[in-house]
Write a structure and sequence with these properties.
CATH superfamily of the largest domain: MetI-like
CATH topology of the largest domain: MetI-like fold
Number of helices: 12
Strand content: under 5%
Low-confidence stretches: none
CATH architecture of the largest domain: Orthogonal Bundle
Shape: globular
Number of strands: 2
Oligomer: single chain
Order of helices and strands: HHEEHHHHHHHHHH
Helix content: over 70%
């Protein structure tokens, strides 16, 4: 039988372990709480200033107005030009990132030998690590001159070159998530298709991609959300012209571009010009939140399907 001293030592050791676990649990809870409280504070500040803006500017004018001149007289607060510019950049970049990203993912997952995969994946990761401001100057000094030689009517600052640069930047996002989704497809499904005489292309298009469609769709949604929230590329290459146009060769202004340009200017806190930044930021927040929510629901559905 254990001695009294040994029993006492075990009790003290167990009590010490429980105290340590309780302390660790409270520390982790504090870390999680700080993240939550920070998010609440940011969102609260954003919407508080936005509500003050909408006390002066009608919501209908903000959502459906076609002129955006908050710093010029007469002032107009229609966000449609900024919204159109943002969606133009998102559409252009998606037309680049989605096919090239998905094609890269299919090659890495289904066709590339291991040696080639070991080389290409790090290159994609390096591309994802390049700062967005570098892509902005790349669009302005490299892509735009090429477009001007091909299409002389292209303006120096234009939506097309900015959209192409954003598309190049988010290719690794689409490729990485899509490749992970396709790699998660069981090999037994591939072998079963091969045993029935299917070719590699038939297996890829008929088995792998449909099985990984939820993960691939999530990568598309996240990529579009990333394009909507891009700042430095559009601020440098797209221009500062808040005009409602459908021509990608013209200068435009996006929501993030407006926020950057106005923040760099001399605006007085508490003025209506100051509050426009928060109103536009709220609109951008709601758009990206909706996109991320869609991606989260898609990923959850993908995980449930895997189970």
């Amino acid at each position: 039988m254990p001695r009294t001293g040994e029993i006492t030592f075990r009790k003290r050791s167990a009590n010490g372990t429980r105290i340590q676990e309780t302390l660790i649990r409270w520390v982790l809870l504090a870390c999680a709480s700080i993240s939550v409280l920070t998010t609440i504070a940011v969102v609260g500040t954003l919407f508080e200033e936005s509500f003050a803006f909408f006390r002066v500017v009608p919501l209908s004018e903000f959502l459906f107005g076609t002129q955006w001149t908050p710093t010029l007289l007469p002032r107009h607060f229609g966000i449609l030009p900024l919204l159109a510019g943002t969606l133009m950049i998102a559409l252009t970049s998606s037309l680049i990132a989605i096919p090239f990203g998905l094609g890269s993912a299919v090659y890495l997952s289904e066709y590339a030998p291991r040696k080639v995969r070991r080389v290409l994946k790090p290159i994609l990761e390096i591309l994802a690590g390049i700062p967005s401001i570098v892509f902005g100057f790349f669009a302005l000094t490299f892509i735009t001159p090429i477009l001007q030689r091909l299409i002389p009517s292209t303006q120096v600052f234009n939506a097309l070159s900015a959209g192409l640069a954003v598309g190049i930047m988010i290719i690794p996002l689409v490729a990485s998530i899509s490749e992970d989704a396709m790699a998660a497809v069981p090999d037994s499904m591939r072998k079963g298709a091969f045993a029935l005489g299917a070719t590699r292309m038939e297996v890829t298009t008929g088995i792998v991609i449909p099985a990984a469609i939820s993960g691939i769709g999530a990568s598309f949604i996240l990529a579009v959300s990333r394009a909507i929230g891009e700042t430095m590329i559009v601020a440098i290459a797209a221009g500062q012209s808040p005009v409602l146009t459908g021509n990608p060769l013209n200068s435009i202004q996006t929501m993030t571009g407006f926020m950057v340009n106005l923040s760099l200017g001399d605006i007085q806190q508490g003025t209506i010009e100051y509050k426009t930044v928060f109103a536009v930021g709220s609109m951008l927040f709601l758009m990206t939140f909706a996109m991320n929510l869609m991606a989260r629901l898609t990923i959850r559905r993908y995980k449930e399907a895997r189970k």
